[in-house]
Amino acid sequence: MDFSVVVEYFPRLLEGAWVSLQLVIVSIVLGGVFALPIALARISPVAWIRAVPFAYIFFFRGTPLLVQIFLVYYGASQFDVVRESFLWPILREPFWCAIIAFTLNTSAYTAEIFRGAIQAIPQGEVEACKVLGMTKAQMYRRILLPRAFGIVLPAYGNEIILMLKGSALASTITILDLTGMARTIIARTYTPMEIFLAAGAIYLLISIVIIAIFRQIELRQNRYLGTLSIKVPDKG
Amino acid sequence: MIDLHGFGDQLLQGAVVTLELALSSLFVGLILGLLGASAKLSSFKVLRWIAHGYTTIIRGIPELLTVLIIYFGATSVLMAIAGVFGYDEYIEVGAFAAGVTALGLTFGAYATEVFRGALQSIPKGQHEAAIALGMGPIRKFYRIILPQVWRIALPGLGNLFLVLLKDTALVSVVGLDDIMRKANIAVSSTKEAFLFYLVAAFMYLALTIISMVFVSYMEKRASRGLIRG
């Protein structure tokens, strides 16, 4: 193997890595915003309000991300209504299609994580809030959500790593993310092993950085507990 | 009824390929997971290092990249090995073989952690009792340890299988005729992308539901000797 080709194309790979990071950051932020109302609806006492997010979560967790991306990118353009609408300039762009698919996907997973965390809070704390005369909104804002945030961290870190790895699928709809860039370089140089291994190493490095950042946030967020070990079952 | 333009049986054939790929990768992954877990708990430092490197690398890089690396890399690795034995014709690695290798490696890395946790949760007394009964290490493993590990590991492995089932779609990128690629073919000839990808999505959902039912049956079966409080 000849790794001089990696040195030559390294700046291009970094360009790709930056696109991957943009995909991950935008979809994680949007996904997190959508996940909270979905999670709250999912634990609603009203059956039909629970049913909608249940179906949503089941669909997005039960089907491959690749199908979801293709549904948005190729599927949406099948309809004339979409092509003539104001949304077309967005749905025409592979980058935004990937963002839409990733956001829908990650918000389903994140909603489940949030739900687990909210339900993991001891019932006594909920009762204490009620005794103090808090309204439901106050209870969530002051007690439940901040508590849930601390519980959620390890599982949320996993979700971000999974999203980073999932972002490689953007390369299938012509986006030049890290994997897409690697495939483009390989088409020119025909050195698949060298370039793919280099791309793998960059992904690995990004994962390690994310894990380290989350460990720090966890330490800070849960410092009042005096211990570090809050166990949340991760999604395997 | 939905009009699939005659691509219905094509998609069903794809589903069979998807299932074959998933089950073969599961088999490879379970063996790798057991080996990995044993290596992680071994008293040999080298084995622990190898297992640690394996799980870290596989879990840190995207599954799609693993598939691509195996697909393109296996050919050159195999040709290099064959070259040593004086065979210098072109060797082609098929999408199915590459898929089983890549997905098996991925499943194995995550299963290593599941099995490690399960192995560690078997009380030491169980080992001692088996030894006291005169069992050798292999018989102890098969008769005493494995059935208990299996019960503890099943829920985790079930989750991993659902992930594996969805990851099979990635192998379509290197040309395996699974659900995803059959859908692609149908789309390119009918231009009905939304319809066919939605049908593909529901086929994966159906496979997911069947797997979930099967896993919960297995869980019940594995813990049938257990008295629940």
From TrEMBL, chain A:
GO cellular component: ATP-binding cassette (ABC) transporter complex
Molecular function, one GO term: transmembrane transporter activity
Recorded superkingdom: Bacteria
Main location group: membrane
Subcellular location per the Swiss-Prot or TrEMBL entry: Cell inner membrane; Cell membrane
SUPFAM superfamilies named in the record: MetI-like
Membrane topology reported for the UniProt record: Multi-pass membrane protein
Keywords attached to this entry: Amino-acid transport, Cell inner membrane, Cell membrane, Membrane, Transmembrane, Transmembrane helix, Transport
ABC transmembrane type-1 domain mapped to chain residues: 17-214
Alphabetical list of InterPro entries matching this protein: AA_ABC_transptr_permease_3TM, ArtM/GltK/GlnP/TcyL/YhdX-like, MetI-like, MetI-like_sf
Pfam families to which the protein is assigned, alphabetical: BPD_transp_1 (PF00528)
Spans through the membrane: 20-41, 53-74, 86-105, 148-175, 195-214
NCBIfam families: HEQRo_perm_3TM (TIGR01726)
Family: Belongs to the binding-protein-dependent transport system permease family. HisMQ subfamily.
Protein name: Arginine ABC transporter permease protein ArtM
UniProtKB/TrEMBL annotation, chain B:
GO BP terms, alphabetized: amino acid transport
Claim: Transport is one of the keywords in the record: yes
Tree of life domain: Bacteria
Record-linked InterPro entries: AA_ABC_transptr_permease_3TM, ABC_transp_permease_HisMQ, MetI-like, MetI-like_sf
Entry annotated with the keyword Transmembrane: yes
PANTHER family (UniProt xref): ARGININE ABC TRANSPORTER PERMEASE PROTEIN ARTQ, CATIONIC AMINO ACID TRANSPORTER, MEMBRANE COMPONENT
NCBIfam families, A to Z: HEQRo_perm_3TM
Full protein name: ABC transporter permease
